[in-house]
């Protein structure tokens, strides 16, 4: 792995470009979301100096700890980890987007707090495309009904779907998870949910497959920041 942050970033961008070339896509369609979970504020500061301004975090608590140390910078925090309903209040206040909305009780809790704050929030609906019991997300068959129900929560702005593929070396199995999400997105748009365009799928170990299957946003952590302790 290249040594400097800028070299690692350039290497990932080159791999994104190559994946796009293989499947006939424009690299400008792909957003890189750096996942800064467990990495401390000085490392995030280095990433901002390299031109990055949105960062994915798994836990609201970690955003609460880091944000004050970086308040002189223009940063948007994106929550990509499972969000407990009792943490919705903090999430509404601290993050610019939640990519792990997976149940109505959470939508209700977020909407209630956002209404008090006079804010709206971009959300991605997390869908469970892997059979692993450890993974969170809506069942695929529940998506269209869930999108209809979200209309009752006007502070939430559904912008797309998110998934975590099966943790496996089986390329076909991983690709199947990504393909399922793309097909669900297309069904949602066809059903009239035209804002649900984005597909957040693909991480350090499988992002090239995700791009080839239609991802619009890849969540990269260790490949960009280095191995976690």
From TrEMBL:
The keyword Nucleus does not apply. The lineage of its organism: Bacteria, Pseudomonadati, Pseudomonadota, Betaproteobacteria, Burkholderiales. It holds the Pfam family Ala_racemase_N. This is Pyridoxal phosphate homeostasis protein. InterPro entries: Ala_racemase_N, PLP-binding_barrel, PyrdxlP_homeostasis. SUPFAM superfamilies: PLP-binding barrel. It comes from Neopusillimonas maritima. Belongs to the pyridoxal phosphate-binding protein YggS/PROSC family. Pyridoxal 5'-phosphate (PLP)-binding protein, which is involved in PLP homeostasis. Gene3D superfamilies: Alanine racemase. Residues 9-227 form the Alanine racemase N-terminal domain. Keywords: Pyridoxal phosphate. NCBIfam families: YggS family pyridoxal phosphate-dependent enzyme. The modification N6-(pyridoxal phosphate)lysine is found at residue 37.
């Amino acid at each position: 792995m290249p040594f400097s942050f800028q070299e690692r970033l350039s290497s990932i961008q080159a791999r994104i470009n190559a994946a796009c070339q293989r499947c006939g896509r424009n690299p400008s369609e792909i957003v890189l979301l750096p996942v800064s979970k467990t990495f401390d504020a000085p490392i995030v500061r280095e990433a901002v100096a390299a031109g990055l301004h949105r960062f994915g975090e798994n836990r609201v608590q970690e955003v609460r700890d880091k944000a004050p140390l970086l308040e002189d910078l223009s940063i948007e925090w994106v929550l990509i980890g499972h969000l407990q309903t009792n943490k919705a209040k903090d999430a509404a206040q601290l993050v610019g987007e939640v990519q792990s909305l997976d149940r109505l009780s959470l939508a209700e809790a977020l909407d209630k707090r956002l209404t008090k704050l006079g804010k709206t929030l971009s959300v991605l609906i997390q869908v469970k495309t892997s059979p692993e019991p450890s993974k969170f997300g809506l069942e695929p068959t529940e998506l269209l009904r869930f999108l209809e129900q979200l209309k009752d929560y006007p502070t939430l702005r559904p912008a797309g779907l998110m998934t975590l593929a099966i943790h496996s070396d089986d390329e076909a199995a991983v690709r199947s998870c990504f393909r399922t999400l793309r097909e669900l997105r297309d069904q949602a748009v066809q059903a009239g949910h035209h804002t649900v365009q984005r597909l957040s799928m693909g991480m350090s170990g499988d992002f090239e497959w995700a791009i080839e299957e239609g991802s619009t946003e890849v969540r990269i952590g260790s490949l960009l920041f280095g191995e976690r302790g």
